[in-house]
Amino acid sequence: MTLTVSRADSPTPIFHERSQGTTVQNLPLSHLSVEVGHFYMDELENGEGPILAQFERVKPWLAAAEASVACGTEKPRVSTCFLIDDYFQRKPDAGQIIERLLRLSRQAGVRIDYIARESSCAVRADGLRVAELVARRLLQEPEPETSTGSRPPALNSGWLANGRPPREEKVLSAMRGHVWKPADEFSKRNHSIFLDVELWRDPPESPMDEETLLNQRLYSCPFLAAVWQLVRLGLLRNDGAPALAVSEPPASWPDDWSLFPDIIKVNPQAKPFYAYRAFSIMPQHFLGIEHAVRTIVEHFLVDPGVGESLHIRAEEKNIALPQVVADRVSHHFLDGVS
To answer: Pick from 32, 1, 31, 33: which is nearest to 17 by CA?
Structure first.
């Protein structure tokens, strides 16, 4: 694939993929996007005390993140965001939940610039299957030559591993009934930490067309969280445009989550939503999920035009941007938060 660079009428390069005729849209970028906590839907609906307490725990880490931004020759730009968990649970009082969330965050001194819906990481408001944009760009690590090739591709199985799972083989021997082989992490250092991630769950096997299958597909929390991280980094595109776009807030909050825009700018003075790096502050019990998220992101094939565009823009501003996408995502896990 050949890339051409055009700077006409634009302060930053625009990249064209000659083989596909796609223009990669340049996005306004913050230096850092900070996710200021995470709650399940029932936590947002019930009781204000735990919400306020978590935001109060987040406040000093948000300040530390803002103070630590390395931005080269530019003035630091930091935006904050919050992902609403409306995919696995949808409560009817959406507007009240949003108002409570914003009020309590202000009370704790934690700024929220953007609110996004987790269900949009699966299917966009206009019907675009955002999660499938990631699913079709997952690259599996090739197993060693000793593999039997019995494991189907992730796109077919809905499972993604960072190595080879344990195996148990039957042997014809009166003394030994089977041979067990341990799991093996492909990129291990001395010892293996094997992880097998469920990306989605399809309905029981029955004849159905692809459209029906995708309509019934249930994506996992780690997979949607990986989609969310790639969106924040400006890496997930549809025909060169961001897979999820930012919208202004509605005149009044609807009670139905499906009527909300995908990403809402709730702070008029907010810095750009998309960013070179992403930082998430969340309770410690999300550690396992974020381990799975990193595994998924490590296997995501970035569009060459998008990746090259971000790197050139970072170099022009003397901003250090890791080559490995997963290294652009970091976390702080809050202890003592139930």
So the answer is: 1
DSSP string, 255-313: SSGGGS-SEEE--TTPPPSSEEEEEEEEEGGGHHHHHHHHHHHHTB---HHHHHHHHHH
Do 247 and 315 sit in the same domain of this protein? yes
Q: Any idea which residue has 């694939």 for tokens? A: 1
Please tell me the distance from the alpha carbon of residue 39 to that of residue 44, in angstroms, as a whole number. 6
- pTM metric for this prediction: 0.88
Q: How far is it, in rounded angstroms, from Cα 115 to Cα 273?
A: 10
- Within this chain, do residues 255 and 327 fall inside the same structural domain, yes or no? yes
Rounded to whole angstroms, the Cα distance separating 46 from 59 reads 22
Task: Tell me the mean pLDDT in the region 150-177.
Answer: 74
Residue that is written with structure tokens 């992101």 in the block:
297
Q: Which residue(s) pair with 65 in the sheet?
A: none
User: Do residues 188 and 39 share a domain?
Assistant: no
288 and 167 in a single domain? The answer is: no
Higher pLDDT, 321 or 154: 321
Is residue 170 included in any domain, yes or no? yes
Task: Give me the domain span that covers residue 169.
Answer: 159-198
| Section 217-223 average pLDDT | 96
Does 130 share its domain with 185?
no
